[in-house]
C-alpha cells in the first residue's frame, strides 16, 4: 500500500484496501468458528482443572478479537495516507469508550463476564465505525 502511495496510484490503494477487507472477512468466517470449536473441545485434550470458566470468557472475547483483526490492519491506511489526526481521534474515542465501560461496570456492579461482553460489543461497534472511516479515507484521497 505504501508503494502505491508513493507512486500516487490511488486506485491501487483502494483495490488493496478492498482486498484486505475481503481477506479479513473470509478469515473471520473460517477462523473464528474453528477457534470457538477448539475452545469448547480443548477439555478433551488437556487438563482444564485450573481453567474452569475459560470457555465462557473466551466466547465473550470473540467480538473483541474479530474487531481487532479488522482494526489493526486497516488502521495502516491512515498511517500510509498521513492522516494521523484521524488516528488520534479514533484512539481518543477508544480510550473514552473503555473508561466509560469500566465506569458502567463499576457503577452497576456487573460481573466480569458481563463487563467483557459489554466491552467486546462496544469495541466491535467502534471497529465498524473506524473501518468505515478508514475506507472513506481511501475514497477521498483520490479526488
Describe the protein.
By secondary structure, the chain is mostly helical. It has five helices and no strands. The chain has helices at 2-6, 10-41, 54-80, 84-107, 112-141.
Q: Indicate the low-confidence ranges by residue numbers.
A: none
Measured on Cα atoms, how large is the radius of gyration?
Answer: 18 Å
Secondary-structure-based class equals mainly alpha
Average pLDDT, all residues: 85
Q: DSSP helix count?
A: 5
Number of strands: 0
Q: Approximately how much helix is present in the residues?
A: over 70%
Shape estimate: flat
Percent strand equals: under 5%
Sketch the topology as an H/E string, one letter per element. HHHHH
Describe the sheet with the most strands. Answer: none
- Distance N to C terminus: 18 Å
Tell me briefly what this model is:
The chain has 143 residues and is mainly alpha-helical.
Amino acid at each position: 500500500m505504501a508503494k502505491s502511495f508513493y507512486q500516487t496510484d490511488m486506485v491501487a490503494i483502494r483495490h488493496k484496501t478492498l482486498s484486505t477487507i475481503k481477506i479479513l472477512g473470509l478469515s473471520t468466517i473460517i477462523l473464528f468458528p474453528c477457534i470457538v470449536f477448539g475452545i469448547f473441545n480443548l477439555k478433551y485434550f488437556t487438563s482444564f482443572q485450573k481453567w474452569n470458566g475459560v470457555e465462557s470468557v473466551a466466547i465473550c472475547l470473540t467480538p473483541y478479537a474479530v474487531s481487532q483483526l479488522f482494526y489493526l490492519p486497516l488502521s495502516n491506511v491512515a498511517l500510509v495516507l498521513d492522516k494521523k489526526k484521524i488516528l488520534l481521534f479514533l484512539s481518543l474515542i477508544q480510550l473514552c469508550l473503555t473508561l466509560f465501560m469500566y465506569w458502567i461496570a463499576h457503577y452497576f456492579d456487573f460481573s466480569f463476564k458481563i463487563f467483557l461482553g459489554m466491552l467486546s460489543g462496544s469495541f466491535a461497534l467502534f471497529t465498524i465505525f473506524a473501518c468505515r472511516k478508514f475506507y472513506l479515507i481511501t475514497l477521498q484521497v483520490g479526488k
